[in-house]
Amino acid sequence: MTGPRSLSGESGLTPGAAPGALNCRFEHESPAHGRAVSGAGGLSSSAMTDSPYLRATAQAYDAVAGRYADFVRGELAQVPLDRAVLAAFAEFVRAAGAGPVAEFGCGPGRVTAHLRDLGLDVFGVDLSPAMIDLARRAYPDLSFEVGSMDALDLADGKLGGIVAWYSIIHTPPEELRSYFAEFRRVLAPEGHLLLAFFESEGGPVTVFDHAVTPAYRWPIDDLAELAREVEFVEVGRMLREPREGERFRRGHLLLRG
Ligand SMILES: C[S@@+](CC[C@H](N)C(=O)[O-])C[C@H]1O[C@@H](n2cnc3c(N)ncnc32)[C@H](O)[C@@H]1O
């Protein structure tokens, strides 16, 4: 593998190349070393935090935002099972009619826009100001805000749905319960939560060398149990085997508030 910042060129990958291969690169490449982790990089006050991992995550995604957006552009069109999960989530949310939907950790906003296309009233939140800039430029009809999903400036029960699409993957396992508690707080009782993550395929929770910043693979049962502990009810789950160029099985959990 080339250096951690080389997100194109190797194996002939260029922006717009096959999305499976792009995913592969974002799973495979080693995290950057020696990255400074000072400063909140323009985070809104609601997201201001002293947490080093949040600052590191924001800075890491700021540094690759444009390349990340190029690499994931068009990916959903290639992955019918991912679209199926998102479509099922949208159907549950529309049926419950419990309020707007937030994509937490929206990155460049492509999943937010997909949810909009599925008929949802949706907005995006992300730690990375550079990601939010890109999302706003790409989808000016949608609302995107800088913030952290563990400290939301949202009223209790405000949301009809939450999607966290590969965005809890960077959260240290011991912090995740408080994230789920925050999701539970802002979600209406009939609201739905959809999680997408890297599944650990029989192993324990494991940290791995995600291209941008360290990430965790979770056993789907453990994540479902953690959600149950903060009173989410499981609606269903989907495991997708890695496509060509991907390293890990993908996990999806659909939960009700
Ligand atoms: C792998 S990217 C996924 C982006 C987007 N969901 C997509 O699929 O294109 C993970 C994103 O989660 C964001 N993120 C990580 N932790 C976060 C937190 N605590 N609050 C908000 N965003 C967070 C990162 O800044 C990054 O943009």
The name CATH uses for the topology is Rossmann fold
What CATH architecture do you see? 3-Layer(aba) Sandwich
**Poorly predicted segments:** 1-25, 28-48
Query: What is the 3D form?
Result: globular
GO biological process, one term: methylation
Protein name: Methyltransferase
Organism: Streptosporangium carneum
GO molecular function: methyltransferase activity
For the structure shown, list the relevant keywords.
alpha/beta; Rossmann fold; two-stranded antiparallel sheet; 34% helix; globular; binds S-adenosylmethionine
Layout of helices and strands, plus pairs?
Elements: H1 19-28, H2 52-72, H3 80-96, E1 101-104, H4 110-117, E2 122-126, H5 129-138, E3 143-146, E4 159-165, H6 176-186, E5 187-198, E6 206-208, E7 215-217, H7 220-229, E8 233-240, E9 250-256
Parallel strand pairs: 1-2, 1-4, 2-3, 4-5
Antiparallel strand pairs: 5-9, 6-7, 8-9
This protein binds S-adenosylmethionine.
Report what the structure shows.
With 257 residues, this protein is of the alpha/beta class. The chain has a single domain (9-256), classed as Rossmann fold (3-Layer(aba) Sandwich), CATH 3.40.50.150. Helix content is 34%, strand content 21%. The chain has seven helices and nine strands. The strands form two sheets. Strands 3-2-1-4-5-9-8 form a seven-stranded mixed β-sheet, sandwiched between helices. Helix 2 (52-72) runs parallel beside helix 5 (129-138). S-adenosylmethionine binds next to helix 2, helix 4 and strand 2. GO terms for molecular function: methyltransferase activity.
